[in-house]
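Input (structure):
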C-alpha cells in the first residue's frame, strides 16, 4: 500500500518531469526557429541547372528525337561550330538549329548518341560520343564541346 508521502513524491516527480519536458520542448522549438531564420535556403538563388545537367538534358532529348526538349538548354543566340578550322559558325541561333535538327530527327528516326566519356571543367562540358542509327549501318565518333553561359548552352 502506498503512503501519502510516496504518492506525493510520485506526483511531484511527474510534475517535475513534465515541466522539464515542456521546457526542453520549448527550448528545442526556439532553437529550430532560430536555426531556420539563420540557415534559410533561398531557392531563387540556387542554380537550376549545372553544366553537366544541361549537357545531359539535351543528350537525352536528342536520343528521344524530341526537338522541343532538345532545344530547351540552348540559348536563343547559340552558335555551332565544326572543328578543326572553325572560323564561322555552321549554325547561328536557336531557330536555325531547330530547322536542321528537326529535319535530321525526321530523316533518321533510329539516331542515337552514346556518351563514351564526359569531362567537366567549370562551365565547359566535353563529351566523347558514338553516334549510330544512320542508314547503311555507318556510325561515327564525335567530340562535342558545350560552353555554358547564363544557365544556357
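Output (sequence):
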Amino acid at each position: 500500500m502506498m503512503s501519502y508521502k510516496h504518492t506525493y513524491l510520485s506526483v511531484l516527480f511527474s510534475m517535475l518531469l513534465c515541466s522539464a519536458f515542456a521546457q526542453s520542448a520549448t527550448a528545442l522549438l526556439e532553437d529550430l526557429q532560430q536555426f531556420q531564420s539563420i540557415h534559410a535556403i533561398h531557392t531563387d538563388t540556387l542554380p537550376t541547372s549545372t553544366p553537366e545537367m544541361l549537357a545531359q538534358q539535351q543528350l537525352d532529348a536528342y536520343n528521344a528525337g524530341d526537338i522541343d526538349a532538345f532545344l530547351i538548354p540552348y540559348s536563343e543566340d547559340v552558335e555551332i561550330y565544326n572543328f578543326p578550322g572553325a572560323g564561322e559558325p555552321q549554325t547561328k541561333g536557336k531557330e536555325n538549329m531547330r530547322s536542321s535538327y528537326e529535319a535530321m530527327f525526321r530523316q533518321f528516326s533510329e539516331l542515337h548518341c552514346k556518351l563514351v566519356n564526359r569531362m567537366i571543367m567549370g562551365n565547359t562540358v566535353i563529351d566523347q560520343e558514338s553516334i549510330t542509327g544512320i542508314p547503311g549501318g555507318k556510325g561515327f565518333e564525335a567530340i562535342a564541346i558545350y560552353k555554358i553561359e547564363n544557365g544556357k548552352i
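Notes: Helices lie at 4-38, 51-64, 67-71, 94-107. The longest helix spans residues 4-38.
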